[in-house]
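Hello Y.,

Per our agreement to keep a running log of every chain we model this quarter, I'm adding this entry. I've kept the format consistent with earlier entries: sequence first, then predicted structure.
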Amino acid sequence: MRSTTRNKSIDEFAKDKFKGIKTNDKFYPFKMRYINIKPRNKSLSNTIIILDNSKACFELSKKNKKAKDYYIEVQFNGLYQPSKQIEAEVWKILSKMIKRFKAYSVDIACDFDDDLAVSKPREFKHQERFSKLKIFGDFHTYKTSMYINNPQSKYYKLERILLYDKYEKQKHYHKENIKREFVRWKRLELTLKIKDKFLDRIENDINDALDLMQDYLRMIGIWHFNMRMILEQTKYLNNPRWAKTFKPYALAS
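Predicted structure for the entry above:
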């Protein structure tokens, strides 16, 4: 286990991703550490991130009347990235973790093609779309990402909604050579609070996320909703002996 400062690429990505959960307690300082599952890895995929004294840790410690530094937060990020190879070992390790410990939250995402740009000038258009599904909340657009914090809707399990331009992010932020055919690539990402054993709860809790995704895609004229990947991932978590490496297919040769 190393400090993220030992790996420049991971440190930069981690600082950007986790800036919203950083705390400023001088007695219990926020720390980021990592374990590389893939040798010479330079992304948050294939990496275990360990966070000390995050906002979630402090909230949980206060709720359960524990010392501030009683809990640590462990994150597995980027479990499905069409532009990256995700090692089978990730699923084997994660399977053991979720069977032993409670999951605090989980992100579920779907990828699709859409011509409507994700940007500040187009924020109102996206708000109109979500309002048709009776989804309201605190909308905030930053560059090519739009966040809906504290969403209010019939999809009651949702903690946050994120819509972003996946092509732009991978092409310009991660500096990946993405195939031109993916230029309309968008991602809808939903955060659910679990606070229980993942496999005990996910079968029921995931329905809210899947319903929202399907309703959203139908609203913009996409009628085919492929669940193959999420079913495959769940199978690997249940029985990691089936786990296999996911190969990238979005990179130009």
